[in-house]
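lol forgot to send this yesterday, sorry. struct tokens for the thing we talked abt
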């Protein structure tokens, strides 16, 4: 039998074989494509379409992750099946940024004693570890809840990126600069919120009474005084002067007081700064809040000290004492004003018996600094002082009124003084609210006409045309 005669009755077989081969090729290509896609990172295969970029790391977080030199392990303390998808996705993003970062789930039911090694961390927490150093991020810190007084409801923001990046910086830091808080002068305590933010910036704080020391500890990156109500003793003043002479840093919050403090004032004078001796009253109504001349919205300078704050925004402080800068600065001293009043502000010297906002005999008038930084260089050794003249910059309620800009300014200045980078401060929490499509009324009417009438009519006409055409055929 000739091949041509044989193949005719077997064409069905050949066709079936070709179809099967084609299907096999398609399946093989599909499997290969799936394997290829599966090998790609989720940041490529999954597109973040949320308006707030919920699952996308910011530039600061990427920089911190990519600059890690030591292995970082993150433990997600949660029962299997109860994971937060948003947290898991974000952890994957960090792991994609650096081979130094890995994470795993630790189920408390399977590992009941695991959390004991990390301050008895609660379920839902993240534990960020690097060698012997670790930081626990509680589950409630991964989200922030804000009350909207206009609607009477709460909004929820996802703050995990800020918390994780801060923890990475903290645990991977080779050194943790120490800020000593001076005690023994009826100082105001450091608010816990500021202490937490300092920790996120890899700054550690510890209280100290210099009367018990012969020198400021050598590991002091800075010494902080918060609204002292009594003067330094001569012994303490000498220790601070010695510390500054060796390149030390002093961070001061002063408060309005009629207590003489000659020893502290002498240190400030050596850096070209002094108290105005009165309550600052602002005459420019555009620089006050709520109509109160003592509730101030000062000008914010733009420099390295303030780069972590919004210099185009506001900081708010009240009951401030003015800072005066000497017309002739001591040798080797430079002073930079960080916060300033208008040129016609008044320093009310008789503030204890205040009866008028107007200028009176004995008052001072002009521009006053409300925060300033001074540097002094002697024999190539540079020391520095940062001085804020109102404690309200540390008040949490006041801070909320300016969207956190008070604390951002304070932390920026402190971090810069202590030699820390401030580029990654203020990673904003990301809104979990629904994103609504807002359409103008005119456009909405047009789209309603198209969707409700024109499209159905077009479909009906097309259907009739197709039916008529088939019948004629």
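and heres what i got for the seq, position by position
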């Amino acid at each position: 039998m000739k091949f041509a005669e044989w193949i005719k009755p077997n064409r069905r077989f050949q066709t079936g074989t070709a179809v099967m081969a084609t299907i096999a090729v398609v399946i093989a290509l599909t499997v290969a494509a799936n394997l290829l896609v599966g090998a790609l990172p989720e940041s490529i295969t999954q597109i973040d379409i949320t308006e707030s970029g919920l699952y996308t790391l910011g530039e600061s977080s990427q920089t911190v992750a990519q600059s890690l030199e030591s292995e970082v392990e993150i433990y997600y303390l949660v029962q299997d099946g109860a994971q937060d998808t948003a947290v898991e996705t974000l952890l994957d993003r960090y792991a994609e940024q650096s081979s130094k970062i890995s994470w795993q789930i630790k189920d408390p039911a399977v590992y009941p004693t695991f959390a004991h090694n990390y301050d008895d961390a609660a379920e839902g927490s993240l534990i960020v570890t690097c060698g012997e150093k670790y930081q626990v991020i509680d589950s409630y810190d991964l989200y922030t809840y804000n009350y909207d007084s206009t609607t009477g409801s709460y909004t929820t923001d996802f703050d995990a990126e800020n918390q994780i990046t801060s923890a990475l910086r903290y645990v991977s830091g080779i050194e943790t600069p120490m800020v000593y808080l001076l005690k023994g002068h009826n100082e105001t305590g450091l608010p816990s919120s500021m202490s937490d933010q300092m920790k996120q910036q890899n700054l550690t704080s510890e209280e100290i009474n210099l009367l018990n020391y012969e020198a400021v500890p050598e590991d002091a990156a800075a010494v902080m005084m918060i609204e002292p109500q009594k003067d330094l003793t001569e012994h303490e003043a000498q220790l601070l002067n010695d510390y500054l002479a060796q390149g030390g840093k002093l961070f001061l919050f002063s408060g309005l007081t009629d207590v003489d403090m000659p020893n502290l004032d002498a240190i400030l004078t050596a850096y070209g700064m002094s108290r105005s001796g009165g309550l600052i009253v602002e005459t420019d109504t555009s620089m006050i809040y709520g109509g109160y001349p003592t509730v101030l919205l000062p000008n914010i300078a733009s420099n390295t000290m303030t780069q972590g704050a919004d210099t185009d925004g506001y900081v708010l402080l009240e009951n401030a004492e003015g800072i005066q800068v000497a017309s002739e600065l001591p040798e080797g001293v430079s002073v930079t004003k960080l916060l300033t009043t208008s040129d016609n502000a008044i320093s009310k010297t008789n503030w204890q018996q205040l009866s008028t906002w107007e200028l009176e005999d004995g008052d001072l008038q002009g521009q006053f600094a409300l925060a300033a930084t001074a540097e002094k260089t002697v024999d190539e050794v540079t020391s520095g002082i940062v001085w804020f003249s109102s404690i309200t910059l540390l008040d949490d309620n006041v801070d909320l009124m300016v969207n956190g800009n008070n604390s951002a300014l304070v932390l920026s200045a402190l971090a810069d003084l202590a030699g820390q980078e401030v580029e990654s401060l203020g990673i904003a929490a990301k809104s979990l609210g629904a994103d609504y499509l807002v359409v103008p009324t005119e456009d909405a009417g047009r789209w309603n006409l198209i969707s409700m009438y024109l499209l159905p009519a077009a479909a009906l006409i097309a259907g009739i045309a197709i039916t008529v055409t088939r019948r004629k055929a």
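The first strand starts at residue 72 and ends at 77. anyway ping me if u want another try
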